[in-house]
Amino acid sequence: MASRNKPPKKRNEDRPLRSGALDLSSHRLIVCLGAGGAGKTTIGAALALECALAGRAVDVMTIDPAPRLLDMLGLKTRPSTPQQVSLSALHPRHGGRLRALRLDPKRMFDRLIEHYAPSPAARDGILGNRIYRGLSSALAGVSDYMAVEQLLDLRREAASNLIVLDTPPAQEALEFLDAPRRILELLSSRALTLLGASREMGRGMGILDVAARAVLAAFDRLTGLHLLADVKAFVRSFEGMYAGFADRATQVQALIREPTSIMVLVTGTAPQRIEQTREFILSLHRLGLRPGALIVNRVMPPLPQLEELRLARLPVQLKRKLERNLADFNALKAREAACLEQLHELTDGIPMLMAMDIGDEPVNLKELLGIARSLQVVA
C-alpha cells in the first residue's frame, strides 16, 4: 500500500487531464455520480474546468437543486440557459471555454411543449391545462425527464464538444439514468390508452379498465373536481407528440452508452462510503451500465516522517505536541489506506484515482483547478 500514498507527480499545467488509465480528451459526455457529500459536484466542476483550460468547449450542467456548482464557478445568478464562466485569469488554450447552467424542469417542459406541439391551439391547450401546470412543477419524475431533454438539447446544439453532468445524490441519480427506459415504458403502457380512451374505444376495454374509469368518474361526482375530464383532455392534447418523446428517450439511452460517454463515480474514504460505493456499482450494473472511473475524493496528503520532525529546530514542548499530532494523523492515514484498499477491490478493472484534500471546500476557480491537477491514479 505504500506506493498508493506517494505524493502526486507534478503535472504539466498545460496538458488536459490524462493518464495511462484515464483519458478524457476523447469523451463528449462525463456523468458525475455519487452519494450526498462525497464531492461529485466539486469533482465535476474541476474536470470541466481543466478540460476547458486545455482548449475544449465545455458545458457543465447541474441537475442537483443545490446551487454549489454555480457558486464554485463564480456565477452569481442561477442560469437555466448556458452562461459563460470567465476563464481569462487562468489563460485557457485557444478554443477553450466553459459555460454552466442549472436545470429548470418547469422552463424546460414549457419549452418542449412550445417546440413540439403540432399546432398553436394544441400548445395553448397543454400549457393552460391545470393537470399540466401541477405536473410540470411538482413531480420528481418530471425533473428526470426534463434533464434527459436538456442533455439532448445541449448535445444537438453542437456548441460544445464536451458536456459534464452533475447529477443529484445517489438514488436520484440512478432515477435520472433510468428515466429514458421509464419514459418508453410509460408511452407503451395501457395507462395512456385508458386515460385517453374515447367512449367507442371503451367498448373494447377489459373489466378492470372499466372499473378504474368508474372509480375516477365516481370521484369526480363526489368532489366536483372534474379530474377525469381534465386528465383525459391532458393526455389527448399530447396526441402526435408521443412518438417524438419515445424517439428522444431512445436517443438519450444510446447517448449514455456511447463509447465517448463516461460515468465517473465519486466517493470518499470514510468507512460508510465503501458500502455506498458497492451498492452504487451494483445498481448501475442492474441498469446495464458500468462506471468508467472511480475517483476517491479528499484523500489526505502525504505526512512528514517522524525523523524529519525530530531533526527540526523547534522548542522541545512544541516538538512533543507535533509528534503526538503526527502519531494521530498516521493512525488516520492507516485507516484511510485500508479504506482505499477495500475500494480498490470493488473496481474490477475500473480506473481508480485519488483527489487530494485541500483542507476546505473550494471557493474559486484556482482551487478547483488545484483539485483537478492533484488527481493521481491508484496503481
Give helix % range: 40-55%
What is the residue-averaged pLDDT? Answer: 82
CATH topology: Rossmann fold
Point out poorly predicted stretches. 1-15, 197-210
Tally of individual domains: 1
Strand order of the largest sheet: 3-4-2-5-1-6-7-8-9
Under the CATH scheme, which architecture would be assigned? 3-Layer(aba) Sandwich
Q: Could you name the key traits of this structure?
A:
9-stranded mixed β-sheet; disordered N terminus; alpha/beta; about 55% helix; 16 helices; about 375 residues; Rossmann fold
Structure description:
The chain has 379 residues and is of the alpha/beta class. It has a single domain, classed as P-loop containing nucleotide triphosphate hydrolases (Rossmann fold, 3-Layer(aba) Sandwich), CATH 3.40.50.300. It contains 16 helices and 9 strands. It has a 9-stranded mixed sheet with strand order 3-4-2-5-1-6-7-8-9, with helices on both faces. Helix 13 (271-286) links the parallel strand 6 (261-267) and strand 7 (293-299). The longest helix has 31 residues, at 316-346. The radius of gyration is 26 Å and the shape is elongated. The termini are close together. 31% of the residues are buried.
Give a brief outline of the structure.
The protein has 379 residues and is α/β, with parallel strands linked by helices.
Write the layout of secondary structure elements.
Elements: E1 29-34, H1 40-53, E2 57-62, H2 68-72, E3 83-85, E4 97-102, H3 105-116, H4 120-128, H5 130-138, H6 140-157, E5 162-166, H7 170-187, H8 190-196, H9 199-202, H10 207-223, H11 227-237, H12 242-256, E6 261-267, H13 271-286, E7 293-299, H14 306-311, H15 316-346, E8 352-356, H16 365-374, E9 376-377
Parallel strand pairs: 1-5, 1-6, 2-4, 2-5, 6-7, 7-8
Antiparallel strand pairs: 3-4, 8-9
Helix pairs in contact: 1-16, 3-4, 3-6, 6-7, 6-12, 7-12, 13-15
